[in-house]
User: Fold this.
Amino acid sequence: MSVLKLGTDNFEQEVLKNNNKVLVDFYADWCGPCKMMSPVIDEIAETKTDVKVGKVNVDDNQELAVKYNVMSIPTIIVFENGIPKKTFIGVTDKNEILEQLN
Assistant:
C-alpha cells in the first residue's frame, strides 16, 4: 500500500475514523532526519498491508502538529481505533516501529 498524504482535509476520515492501526509520520521537507526516515516509512507501507500509513507535512498542517503535540520532527504516531497509542520521536529503528504495529 502506498503512503497517504494526510492533512486537515482528510485526517479525520483516514485516521480518526479508522478502526485499524494507522501509522502517521509528521515531517517537513527540509528536515534531514525526516529524509532518513522516509524510506523506512515507505517500506513499512509496502510490507504492512494491514496498516494504513500516512504522512503529515507539519509546515502545511501546523494545526495537526499542535493538536498532537509534535514538538520535534520526525514524530511518528501509531493510532489504533482513532486513538494515539505510541509515539516515536526522531530517527527510529524500523523494528521498533514494526513491533508496535504487530
The chain is about 35% helix and 30% strand. The longest helix spans residues 32-47. The chain has one domain: 4-95.
